[in-house]
Design brief:
It is built from 10 helices and 6 strands, in the order βββαβαββαααααααα. The chain is an alpha+beta fold and 334 residues long. The protein folds into 2 domains: 141 residues, 3-Layer(aba) Sandwich (Glutaredoxin); 163 residues, Glutathione S-transferase Yfyf (Class Pi), Chain A, domain 2, CATH 1.20.1050. Helix 1 packs parallel to helix 3 and helix 1 packs across helix 7. The protein starts with a strand and ends in a 55-residue tail after the last helix.
């Protein structure tokens, strides 16, 4: 949910439901395979983090996933991709129904990712930042064999520090740029965004990953913004000093991750573009969804292997996604 003040800047409404699903059930919701349903949209960068993390850790069976359509109205995300327009497990048409089942007077954002308790039909949490950390820490008993450590204890302070900079200046920064209601607010967010991207480029010039020599939570947080940059943020949000493809280090880094199992195979450019260009009618009143850019460049060689690093550390890549979870635009015709 966001707040845009006329003539001023943009402020994200961060009043999330912070109940946690934990191994010991201290918040009343113990980790139980099959009990919960992760609701996402493939369009949403915040939900995309959870999709990638779930894939890398192999939690598909323990934490089943519902995919909402790429667009929504003021009421909430809808399950228009499912037969009859209802999620087949929760039996609801709108994610809003699960939030109201938790609190009939709920007046905050209906956001994804959200985890729903299937027996009660109520949302447990939509605290996107904690959701992925808890997938790593609290759901460890159900990780696949060979699952990577995405949030290793020794690196957590650095991951948290880098992640906070990425959130403030990049993840949220593109929205503060795109939703600015004054030239001053726009230029401030724009400058902070590209200053941070420049510093990240310097950090990654001689290091394959952001923290340590393996993929961590920090890389996931940056990737979901980079993969949307040229398709959406550059034009739609006026983040146009350069395209990602014109920033050599970040473009190679993003391609490296895209070509890593669990990253590119979760990307749906069709959903991404449809969401931003249709839902943000105040920015794009015509509702026209651009045909480009050509995504084939994401598969070009990146050369980042020369920097060393081990994507999964002592672990292994995840298996290819199941047929049910393969991104529609990436399905091979039978």
């Amino acid at each position: 949910m966001s707040i845009v003040n006329p003539g001023k800047g943009y402020s994200r409404d961060s009043r999330y439901i912070t109940t946690r699903i934990t191994a010991d059930g201290r918040d009343g919701f113990p980790v139980e395979p099959g009990r919960y349903r992760l609701v996402v949209s493939r369009a949403c960068p915040w939900a995309h983090r959870a999709v990638i993390t779930r894939r890398l850790l192999g939690l598909e069976k323990a934490l089943p996933m519902a995919v909402a359509g790429p667009t929504h109205d003021k009421r909430s995300w809808t399950f228009d991709l499912d037969p009859g327009g209802r999620d087949p497990v929760l039996g609801i048409e709108r994610l809003q129904e699960a939030f109201l089942a938790r609190d009939p007077d709920y007046d905050r954002g209906i956001t994804v990712p959200a985890i729903v308790d299937v027996p009660s039909g109520a949302v447990v949490t939509n605290d996107y930042a904690q959701i992925t950390l808890d997938m790593s820490l609290e759901w460890a008993a159900y990780h696949r064999d060979g699952a990577p450590e995405l949030y290793p204890a020794a690196l957590r302070p650095e991951i948290d520090a880098v992640g906070e900079e990425i959130y403030r200046d990049v993840n949220d920064g593109v929205y503060r740029t795109g939703f600015a209601k004054s030239q001053e607010a726009y230029e401030e967010a724009y400058e902070r965004l590209f200053a941070r991207l420049d510093r990240l480029s310097e950090r990654l010039e001689d290091s394959r990953y952001l923290v340590g020599d393996t993929i961590t939570e920090a890389d996931i947080r940056l990737f979901t913004s980079l993969v949307r940059f040229d398709a959406v943020y550059h034009g739609h949000f006026k983040c146009n000093r350069q395209k990602l493809t014109e920033m050599p280090v970040l473009w190679a880094y993003a391609r490296d991750l895209y070509q890593t199992p669990g990253f590119g195979d979760t990307v749906d450019f069709d959903h991404i573009k449809k969401h931003f260009y249709v839902v943000h009618s105040h920015i794009n009143p015509t509702g026209i969804v651009p045909a480009g850019p050509d995504p084939s460049g994401w598969l070009e060689p990146h050369g980042r292997e020369a920097l060393g690093g081990r994507p999964f550390g002592d672990g292994t890549p995840p298996e290819p996604p199941s047929a049910a979870e393969t991104v529609p635009s990436q399905r091979v015709p039978s």
